[in-house]
TrEMBL record:
Protein name: non-specific serine/threonine protein kinase
EC number(s) given by UniProt: 2.7.11.1
Residues that, per the record, bind ATP: 49
Catalytic activity: L-threonyl-[protein] + ATP = O-phospho-L-threonyl-[protein] + ADP + H(+); L-seryl-[protein] + ATP = O-phospho-L-seryl-[protein] + ADP + H(+)
GO CC, any one term: Golgi apparatus
Amino acid sequence: MGALLCYPSDKKYTINGRSYTLSGNTLGEGGFSFVYLAKDSNSKKYAIKIMICQTSEALAVAKKEVEIFKKFDHPNIMKLLDYSVLPSDKVDGAKDVVLVLPFYKDGSLQDLLDNQRTIYGKNATQPAVYNQKRTLDIFKQICNAVTQFHHSDPPLAHRDIKPGNVMVSVAPDGVSITPILLDFGSTRDARIQVRSRKEALSIQDDVDQTTTPSYRAPELFDISSDCNLDERVDIWALGCLLYAMAYNKSPFEIADDEPNGSVALTVLSGLPNQFPNNDYPKPFTDLIRNMVNSNKDERWNIDQVLEHIDNITRS
């Protein structure tokens, strides 16, 4: 399906008077959305996200994503440069919601992790991409971005925090690194009271379509008919992301030699008692354990996470 819907390399879009030409390089793909490398008339590079909306419900979800972009102005949150809603020339009667986004040549955190595993082996848990100090600096910036979501009114949950949704911008000096959180198609109101099986099934279907299992909080795997969900689903994902920055993969990633393994069962089993190696001090691993806590009522909130990071960096 994706191959049938993808756009040719010479496809042009004119959005609010500016012309963009797709390069043919696909930067990302998910469901009925595609992200392409594009250039304007001055050959400046951009990322163009195209969401093909075949129903009014899909169009409403896409427009909600636009509103999330417009809600925030933060150095660690992806900026929406422009957008338009156009008739789709791929699907009759559908609409294309076209977003113009910055292009980050340094790729994503997932690209960096994949590179480590290419060099050192698929199951290599060391060396990490960055040392502890740099890891915590980058991670704190990501947490600062998440704070914007959790402290909004009403609170929002990103719901799909993972290395692939964090771009990396390296300054010209090669030293300063700015992580950029992106992809808000999964973002929902954080605090939800589930009071019926119908509500639970509806939310479960949404979660299954918009979140990544190896970074998904346990309460989102089998949503109860009588429960409360909140923004701490993101804290779990952040803990998995920090673990991945330290050990090159999520703690709940199924290994290649476990083809019949279940991510859900692995997640519900919680963190392993022992981490892969002893390269990190206890305050660092404690930070991960308090985020990746199967008991969501004991799981830290974003302010506690930031406070602990500050305590580590001061010590």
